[in-house]
Specification:
about 220 residues, single chain, mainly alpha
Length: about 220
């Protein structure tokens, strides 16, 4: 069963026995879940309008309950990742979101947009490769006992959180890099050719990640 947002909020109020719950509040919860890449809200094929189902209802009731207990949204979202089977994002939706984000930055020319798209693909591919290597290493080093199984799961969740933070910071750094003056981003090659200064770009991204990683990871883990 699917609900549009107004009917969905009424269902949330009925299920959670909460009379004071505004449509904008619920909308903002699910918007933030999507922005952080946690949970995707279904759309209608005809109008691309968001529609909510039983899983979304469980999430909304959970969020409302924890908000009543004075939990922060960050802590709630971390708990949601652990306790629910969440709806993944369609591949084409994730690609469209990234491209739209790139195109929204002011003063980007088509060549730079193309370069940023390639950079995003490189970052994503490297992240997936690193995660597989690290997870395989965990499997090799841990036994099959129950305590080790729990330890393995905890370490895997932490690893995923670290990679998620690194990936988000690298995306942010790429966007910030693209807004820097052209003379800082471009270098001359020979007499007539110019190209992006990849060495400076990589150094900028690395410095940005190192500077923000600790606080962002603490927030991601709810610490």
């Amino acid at each position: 069963m699917y609900w549009k947002i107004s009917d969905f909020v009424e269902q949330v109020k009925k299920t959670s026995k909460e009379e004071k719950l505004h449509v904008n509040t619920v909308t903002s919860w699910f918007k933030k879940l999507e922005e952080e890449g946690i949970h995707f809200v279904s759309r209608t094929e005809e109008t691309n309008e968001k529609v909510y189902d039983e899983l979304d209802l469980q999430l909304a009731v959970f969020i409302k309950k924890k908000r009543n207990q004075k939990w922060s949204l960050s802590a709630i979202f971390n708990a949601i990742r652990d306790e629910f089977e969440l709806r993944p994002f369609p591949v084409e939706d994730m690609e469209t979101t990234n491209v739209a984000h790139i195109n929204s930055v002011e003063f980007l020319n088509p060549t730079l947009i193309k370069e940023l798209k390639v950079a995003f693909e490189e970052v994503a591919a490297s992240q997936l490769g690193e995660m597989k290597i690290q997870y395989d290493e965990i499997l090799k080093n841990l036994s099959d006992s129950k305590s080790k199984e729990e330890e393995r799961e905890a370490r895997f969740k932490e690893m995923v959180a670290r990679k998620r933070v690194e990936y988000q910071l690298e995306k942010e750094a790429l966007i910030k890099w693209s807004t820097k003056p052209e003379e800082e981003r471009i270098k001359k090659v020979g007499w007539f050719k110019i190209e992006e200064n990849q060495e400076e770009r990589n150094r900028f991204i690395k410095d940005y990640v190192n500077m923000n990683f600790e606080n962002r990871l603490k927030n991601e883990l709810g610490l």
